[in-house]
Every structure is written in C-alpha cells, then in structure tokens.
Amino acid sequence: MGYKVAVVGATGAVGRELLRILDERQFPVDAIAALASGRSVGREVSFGDKKVLKIQNLETFDFTGWDLALFSPGAAVSAVYAPKAAAQGCIVVDNTSQFRMEPGIPLVVPEVNAQALHKAKRGIIANPNCSTAQMMVALKPLHDLFHIERVVVSTYQAVSGSGKAGMDELFNQTKGSFVHDAPEITQYTKQIAFNVIPHIDRFMEDGATKEEWKMAVETRKILDPDIKVLATCVRVPVFIGHSEAISIECSKPVDLKKARHALRNAPGVILRDEREDGGYVTPIECVGEDDTYVSRLRIDPTVENGLAFWCVSDNLRKGAALNAVQIAESLAEQHLLGPNSPLVKAAHIG
Questions:
Q1: Would you please indicate which residues are annotated as catalytic (active-site) residues?
Q2: Which end of the chain is more exposed for a tag (fewer CB within 10 A), N or C?
Q3: E strands, 273-316, where?
C-alpha cells in the first residue's frame, strides 16, 4: 500500500532533504506534492534521480485525500497550515518548534519513543530540535541501563541549523577573509567564520538561550520527565553536522563494558571509540549518514556514577529530515496512516 505525501517547505534545505530521504528509503509513495509559499510556485525540485516536481502553493492547497504531510516551512507557517492539514484528514509530522511542547502532541524520536505516536489525537506529531534528536538516540540505551538523573551537554552546532542563509554567511565571510573584505554580519550576532558563538536563538530571563531551554524540556518530554539537563549551545563554523560533548550522572553504578555493549546494539547508534589518534568521529565524517556516532566514551571521575562521551550526527538528516521520515515509517508500521487511521478518527477529521 502506498501513500499520498505532501512535503511543505520543499524549497528549503530540510525540505529538499525530506524529498531525497523519502526516495532513498523507498517510502511507499503513490503520489507526492511539493509545497511552498506563493512566491516559489512553479520552481522545480527533485524527487529521486528521475522525477522533477513543480512547487505548488501551500496557501491554496487542499489536503483532503492526502495521507501524510511533512512540514518544514518555519514555525509561524506551521502554526497556520498544520492544523488546517490535520483538519482535512492528513496526518502531519512537523519539523518546526511550533507544536513540540503542546499537550496532546507527541514529540518523537522513533528509536526512543515510537509508542507515543498513538497519542497524536490532534493529527499532528512534532519532530524535536536537531540537537535534542541525536542526543536522545545516544542517551536512550544508557538510560535503560543506568537510569540517567542529570545531563550536562555542550553543543557545537553547524550553520546549516540556521538554514541556507547561515551557510551562505559562513561561505561569504570565509571567502571574504582571503581578500580582506570586512565581514557582513546578518544571520548571527557576531562573525561566524573562524569563530564560535555561544548564542543560538533568543535569550531568556534566566540567562539561558531558548535553544538550551529546548534541549532540557524536550529531553524530559521524550525520555524521562525527571531528568535534569544543563545545556550550553554554541554555533561553530561547520557547514553540516552537529557535535555534542555529553556528561551524564546516573542513579545506578556505571559499567563501561556494559555501556559499550548497549551502544553497539542500540538502533541508530554507531560506536567508534578507539583510544588512539583519529579513533573518533568528527562532523565532516557524518555528513550524509543516518546514524548518530558516539566516541570518546569514558568514566567521569568527578561525579558518582558518571559517564562522558562525544556525539556527532548530520543535523539535516537525523536532526531533521531523516527523523521525520522515520516517524512516517513508524506510523505506517503501526497502521496509523491512511483514511482508516485511528489518529484521523480520534481527531474527528477526514
């Protein structure tokens, strides 16, 4: 059985990646629509090697009869059109921040909490923040073993997390530095080329940024409501691939051998932990890969039951598009897609 799938925000970096991954993973598609704002109508995007799609206007699109919509157009747009699509009988997987913390809308990383999809009574499922998604994949097997109580994480986030504009700014500033051009700063608060910026999203009253807040509250919603999380989120001059230095404190004694075994056997995780030069994975090596890579695994002697490690992943894939497609695959596996979906019936749509 195939499905009718709409990709919303199809001209953006994540939207294009969604189309690519749907084709790569051979998701059962009977019909596909590429949607964006009116100013993009008529532009073309690729779906696989052979098929070219013309952009259709999101503002006038009728989702009636469509099974699934993968949204990545920006939170303000999702706020308007995701409920509209759901009301017309189409299950929505939203990649923006709009619905992540709303009650009744599950926040899902399939390797961690695919069972939460049954709770999508409003017909909308949220995709987590990119930095949260890869951390969840790495933490889940360790939490199952040792029961994590506290996480301290420092992120090193690629500019693609800001979209094409962020990537362009890094490229232009880097190129300009070789001819002594003054850096043009529009996307970030400071120069990003040859620099790091400890500021992602807006500042909150307690001094944390909203990106750091997201990692804390999303971890509790996905993995365990009692976990404490302290995050420091940093933008770095890398095009694709988020990195994280993670330290955890657990309620049970940590056994390094058991931790290695659990990570090696965890879905979506590749452990590469060789204690030698180059025996770890860097962001440039994970570009185009589906898995989350864990390296530098070691006991943290500064706290009781502590463990530290390094974690990298392609933020456009596992951090965004891949996770959304995996949610779609889980929906299909659990018979939650299609006109007879219990999610459609529960939401009184269709």
A1: 130, 242
A2: N
A3: 292-300, 306-313
